[in-house]
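Q: What would this chain look like folded?
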Amino acid sequence: MALLALLLLLIASLSLYVIVCRHRFSKLLRTPIQNPIDAFHRESARVVIVGSGICGVTAAKTFVQYEYTHITILEASNEIGGVWRSDQYEGASLQGPYWMYQFADFSWPRDLVKGIISPGKAAVQEYIRRYAEKYNVFSKVDIKYQCRVKTAVRDTKRNCWRMQIDESDEIIEADILIMAIGNNSSCPIIPRIPNENKYQGQVLHSSEVGNGEILKYASNIAIVGGSKSAYDIGQMQPHKTTLIMRTPHYWMPRWPLLLPFFDRIAYGLFSGYKVDKSDRSLLTRVLDEVFMPLVAVGINRPDSNSLLDDIMNGGGLHVCTTSKQYRNAKLWTLEKSQPKEYTANGLILENGKELEADVVVWGTGFQPTRAFQQIFDGIELQDTLDDGLYLYKYISQPKLPNVYFLGFKDPSLNMPLNASIQSLWAMFCGAGIAQLPTLNDMEEVISRRQHNTRRMFPFSHRRAYYDFFLAGESSCDYSYTEDLLRDCKGIFDKRVASAWCHPTNIWSSGPAFGAIFGAEIIADDDSRNAAASDSTSLV
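A: My prediction, written as structure tokens:
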């Protein structure tokens, strides 16, 4: 009886803790106590946001909240949502629980997540739309659809950016330019291998699969890559699918996300990463080489028993969202190799095997730096952009004054929250309020980080965004966001919650107490979970 009373007291205390923590951060993001930005600047500055995904909409909301009057969003497609647009591939869904992907000042509406742990793309897009609607983005922001930026040139005399819109002569000027195109939407990577002109089938990038209709009529499907999109698309026709990965990767179940302060444990693990295993602490090695591989789902494990080595070498951390997905994955034919060349009817792999495939899908990600090279043509940002664009605090490039990149910090346990704080930082920088080092000092910080990252990490086209755990000044989401807010000294000093109150923490990020003991996560309920990946339905 005493044990039960103690348990109830613990749950009640944690519930109160959640309410207090979320209130502190939502108050920070909702309404400024007193607008610190000069009225003339707010009424004259032209703010242009490129992209209307989660970061673009969040940036627009932030500028609206602080009463800017000239805000424009340039969206290449015909709808908002970014990677969650309706033309995204069938089955796209959140990788983790919805409460770890939500705004601190706007919880998920119950009708979008009722009976669902990981909502599908339509639900996520609707969540973003309602957020924009709640904060008057549609009424106070000029959203230009089907509007792709071709080039951006700095007008030094007028101190603004002049952007030419693709396939038109229209010029749009910006005093503050927000690049919110993210890591997963521009310049898809399709490696060129010999004899592509001889192949009689269809070659697609994962972003082109759409509703998967073409896969229904294929006899054999080859999917190349170990990304989440490759795993998701493999769910469409699993009995016809061959998944080709150069290196097998760990696939994690979802229940560890429910561990108390999971984010702190994860960041502590990653912060202990060293290239040489012998340099890692005993605790890091036990967690990395014993506990995590033991927890991992055994579909196609890598040779290494180190989860950290697998992730740092391009594996990512894929979460098995439902037991049905795991069963489907067991139906795949797995090939540990990579394509060498096309044949008329399929592929020849590096291991010598020849595969027949009516459709080849490349789940090999994106390289947004190609878009940056085109847009900021003539500006040498760094020696090479092959491994990503190195930015000051993952937002600013000193050679691009008043240009701010949002969403280029990987990984993040709570993308919407990070987008909110990054937007505040960018806005206060644009207004001249944030306290920043000199341009030379910023370039020195970037150069030092670039050198250390390239020395310590294997090559990846996202290496510049994935070295977060080795950044030094910040080791996880909460310290990163607090670091950004500290630059706005005098504005948030009395309103910043402590690290342990940060909404990235699962125990303070939302309605996690409905699943304290993991019942919803562990339960094998395919009828409930099927809706999570059903992009044709919101629930």
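The longest helix spans residues 2-30.
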